[in-house]
Amino acid sequence: MSLRVYSHRMRKALGARSIAHAVLLGCRAGLLDGQPQRHGDHAGYTAHLRRGEEPCEPCRLGERAYRSTQRAGNREVA
Ligand SMILES: [Zn+2]
Question: How many A from CA of 42 to the centre of ligand 1?
Answer without folding.
Answer: 9
